[in-house]
Description:
Elements: E1 2-4, E2 7-9, H1 16-32, E3 37-43, H2 49-57, E4 64-68, H3 76-79, E5 96-97, E6 110-111, H4 133-143, H5 150-160, E7 161-163, E8 178-182, H6 189-199, E9 218-221, E10 223-224, E11 226-227, E12 230-231, H7 234-239, E13 248-252, E14 255-261, E15 266-273, E16 276-288, H8 291-301, E17 304-305, H9 307-312, E18 319-320, E19 333-340, E20 353-357, E21 368-373, H10 380-385, E22 392-399, E23 407-410, E24 419-422, H11 429-446, E25 455-460, H12 466-476, E26 509-511, H13 526-544
Parallel strand pairs: 3-4, 3-16, 4-13, 7-8, 16-26, 17-18
Antiparallel strand pairs: 1-2, 5-6, 8-10, 9-20, 11-12, 14-15, 15-16, 19-22, 19-25, 20-21, 21-22, 23-24
Helix pairs in contact: 2-13, 11-12
Amino acid sequence: MSTAGGTTVTAEDDPPGDLAARIADNQAKLRDALQPHYDFIVCGSGSSGSVVARRLAENATVRVLLLEAGGDDDADSVTDAGRWPANLGGVRDWNYLAEPSPGVNGRSLPMNMGKVLGGGSSINVMVWARGHQNDWDHFASETGDPRWGYQAVLDIYRGIEDWQGLPDPAYRGTGGPVFVQPAPDPNPVAPAAVAAARSVGIPSFDHHNGTMMEGRSGASISDVRIRDGMRQSVFRTYTYPYLDRPNLTVLTGALVHRVLLGDDRATGVEFSYRGMTHHIGAGAEVVLCLGAIQTPKALMLSGIGDHAQLTKVGIDTVAHLPGVGQNLQDHAGFSCVWEYRVPLPARNSASEATVFWSSDRGPDSPDVQICQIEVPFTSAENAARFTMPAAGWSLFAGLMRPASRGHLELTGSDPTDPIRIHANMLSEPADVAVAVDAVELCREIGNSAMMSPFARREVMPGDLTGRDLERFVREAASTYWHQTCTAKMGRDEMSVVDGELRVYGIDGLRIADGSVMPRITTGNTMAPCVVIGERAAQLIRDAHGL
């Protein structure tokens, strides 16, 4: 439902072309008449920011400004679910590069993140994974707030989903804005991978967002945000239908520099837009939803962070929060590849089955995730070492509970100065051990009888052992594109926000994105970021009586 000129129209009476034209006209007018103040400024239109902006704009009396550094999402590489790899390394990618690290044999790993309306939800692989019960209960424990616990979060998920799979009312919802379904009509290699996992002792499930995320292991066809072959980004789901409203202004190409502060309160935002620097006030709150790299960068440029690091680049400290930019986590990934016996075309997003597993070294929840990929996929180093087939498939294992921690470092006080990313993947021996276990599990699944109809040969790693297998792991390691945890919520001295996502020591400033996670969730991080956005919006509405 949308509102135009005071008249309410339903989707049935509102053809997409008419809505698009009305949105274009409305947003052009709003951009040309920027106001000096808005009630709320939301920085970043990714999986959390799009939710926050929409939920606040639902109140017609509230004026919301949404800032996005990237450009428009109207591109085939975004909308066509199968073309997501075309965005990596392009204009819709921040194109971050981590510092060389000994843990990955001195390599500098690309750290792709979305720079476009919708953020990561516009360039990712579209898997909807809620996180494990223990993740959310850990969040509740860290914050002392049961509203972050698993049972409370299940209520949010049920409320927002429009689940298209087998009914499971205890865990899945219908009628909400978030269209989710098991990958439809999957490539035959996907159900074979689920059956292969079952053959090595991992139970299979109808979907991976129910009881499977309360145990130690499981396999299923992946839940995806794809409809009729088209990506369902969080921006398109939440924000786009409200862009014909007069109280929601969205700017693209708007790079946030810093939060404007006065008397220990956020008063607005400085950002560049259309070749000019703008200072726009926020009457109620500023909400940072810029992701795990740009959110801490904006905080530090605003004088919020570790005093020693700020002083080093000539920034006066407003609030000494040593945890800003620390605790960087990601799911390091390692790919194993097989050549197809008979080539089969990829379907949906080319990733349609997933396996969660707890190694013997693992905790009481999975410490490994494997995603089946319907193309040969590996690092540049291992692609040069092994001859990749013209047609093949991969099992891409990721570390769900990494012990390694990275950090961020400013290189200067100018917003355009690059930020150093010390990812530190595989810096802890425990991670290497689990990675080796994960690769061995991939080989056991991939070489099982269930997969033999699809495998002419194993391409990599082959029967490596000892130091050779460890070398393979270090050279295979790549990002799973799940950078998180750099402005964590909690109650210790390294926490940046409290359980209500308020930045310690600064009124009127919250953070709502993956950076607030105390630890990275189990599985793909888009769905947890949507929940963070929903929680933030409700907290803000409650605080301001909206």
